[in-house]
């Protein structure tokens, strides 16, 4: 099974697990690029009122709903897992300004009908997708000068830091109540992300490593803010 199929299967099992458990998540008060409710939030995305946005891997749909309700954004949220999509649409399917799509993000972006966005973003969704494929499909769908903002894993709970070659690795996805799934993730160094973005037609504006507040917790994420280059900048 290839990486994309394995991830789709794992996230479908994950969503089913939570549907069967009746998991009810609280409403987010803010957007959290890390896992700790501290650090930068939606302000990193700029003024969103009336902006056309793409969420890559929205999971339960909490953030596209939050950005539409609290920031007046218009969001297409593209989720590959049918069970995660079901969780999102069951809870947020009628939120004005949000349109959930069940599709692989690369496949969606390659459709002739895919729109051009002001802002594309992903909170821990983009690291599950081959970055060469994703950025090639995404670049024509972000307007020149538009932004791409995303967070990805940098160091996992076992202290394994990022890779220095563009290759996915196994990571563990724990299941509430016990059990775990294996997923394939691109956990890459900030320098590699920068190279990939520039090759893919984006200019890096800001990159930072967000660390857990407790010094004993090794988990860290990378937050990346990039801008779609104009054709002149790309020459
Ligand atoms: C860690 S969850 C993040 C969910 C959400 N962004 C949040 O922070 O609440 C990652 C999500 O990305 C989705 N995903 C993984 N690969 C994808 C792909 N190729 N296209 C679209 N969604 C994908 C998974 O199904 C999963 O729901």
Please characterize this protein's 3D structure.
With 235 residues, the chain is an alpha/beta fold. It has a single domain, classed as Rossmann fold. It contains seven helices and nine strands, in the order αβαβαβαβαβββαββα. Strands 3-2-1-4-5-9-8 form a seven-stranded mixed beta sheet, sandwiched between helices. α2 links the parallel β1 and β2. The longest helix is centred in the N-terminal third of the chain and has 19 residues, at 3-21. The termini are far apart. The model has no long low-confidence stretch (mean pLDDT 96). Bound molecules: S-adenosylmethionine.
Query: Mind telling me the CATH superfamily name?
Result: Vaccinia Virus protein VP39
Count the DSSP helices: 7
| Strands, total number | 9
Radius of gyration computed on alpha carbons = 17 Å
Quote the distance from N terminus to C terminus: 38 Å
Question: Order of strands side by side in the largest beta sheet?
Answer: 3-2-1-4-5-9-8
């Amino acid at each position: 099974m290839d990486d994309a199929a394995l991830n789709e299967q794992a996230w479908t099992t994950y969503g089913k697990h939570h549907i069967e458990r009746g998991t009810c998540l609280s409403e987010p008060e803010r957007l959290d690029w890390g896992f700790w409710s501290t650090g930068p939030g939606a302000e990193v995305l700029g003024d969103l009122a009336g902006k056309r946005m793409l969420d890559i891997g929205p999971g339960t749909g909490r953030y596209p709903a939050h950005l539409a309700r609290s920031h007046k954004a218009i969001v297409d949220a593209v989720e590959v897992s049918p069970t995660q999509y079901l969780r999102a649409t069951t809870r947020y399917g009628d939120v004005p300004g949000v349109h959930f799509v069940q599709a692989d993000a690369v496949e969606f972006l390659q459709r002739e009908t895919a729109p051009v966005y002001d802002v594309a973003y992903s909170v821990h969704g983009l690291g599950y997708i081959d970055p060469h494929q994703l950025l090639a499909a995404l670049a024509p769908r972000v307007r020149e000068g538009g932004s791409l903002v995303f967070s990805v894993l940098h160091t996992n709970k076992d202290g394994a830091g990022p890779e220095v070659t563009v290759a996915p690795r196994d990571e563990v996805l724990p299941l509430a109540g016990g059990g775990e799934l294996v997923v394939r993730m691109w956990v890459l160094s900030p320098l590699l992300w920068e190279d990939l973005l520039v090759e893919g037609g984006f200019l890096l504006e800001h990159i930072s490593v967000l660390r857990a507040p407790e010094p004993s917790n090794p988990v860290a994420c990378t937050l990346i803010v990039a801008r779609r280059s104009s054709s002149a900048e790309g020459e």
